[in-house]
């Protein structure tokens, strides 16, 4: 586990979710103030604070809406109706912080139980890859009445140009940033799975 200037342990599993939850809450309040700028903008547009929140928190922001926490209507409204995502964001950064703490303290799962770790990481890589693919197809293949190839060939250039021109103003930016997070996590879990598998083989041969 990391240490501070006086040798005290830095518990990332506490620090990261605390910091990111506070930052997310601030961005939600800011997004509420920016919402009037969306009037008459049509669908597919978002305020910069909300897009930035999705980019920073990735899967925590997106999947947080599926982890229900009851909030007073006034509180949720003041948080741009995204208050229910807070718990998911906190869990996401807690897991990242816990992983950092365990690796720093030499208690990582692949060090203690490499075979189980390899299976777990491989499963996590698969899940992240599947959801990343879903996020990308959601942006470039939104219609169920056309094949993804037909839609992608027509929409790819348009979507990319709009996102490049307005990176903090579109819902496509949010979806692609979450997909990017998931692709990175998938690659990370693949690497961890192979590392755990090598350690498992070493244990068998020794």
What does this structure look like?
The chain has 206 residues and is an all-alpha fold. It has two domains: 1-107, no CATH class; 109-206, no CATH class. Helices cover 71% and strands 0% of the residues. It contains nine helices and no strands. It has helices at residues 12-34, 48-57, 59-63, 73-78, 86-104, 109-112, 114-140, 148-165, 171-205. Helix 1 (12-34) runs antiparallel to helix 2 (48-57), helix 1 runs antiparallel to helix 5 and helix 2 (48-57) packs parallel to helix 9.
**What's the story with the biggest beta sheet?**
none
What does the radius of gyration come to? 20 Å
How many helices in DSSP terms?
A: 9
Number of strands: 0
Structural class: mainly alpha
Helix content: over 70%
List keywords for this structure.
flat; 2 domains; 206 residues; mainly alpha
Topology:
Layout: H1 12-34, H2 48-57, H3 59-63, H4 73-78, H5 86-104, H6 109-112, H7 114-140, H8 148-165, H9 171-205
Helix pairs in contact: 1-2, 1-5, 2-9, 7-9
Quick structural summary:
The protein has helices at residues 12-34, 48-57, 59-63, 73-78, 86-104, 109-112, 114-140, 148-165, 171-205. It is mostly helical and 206 residues long.
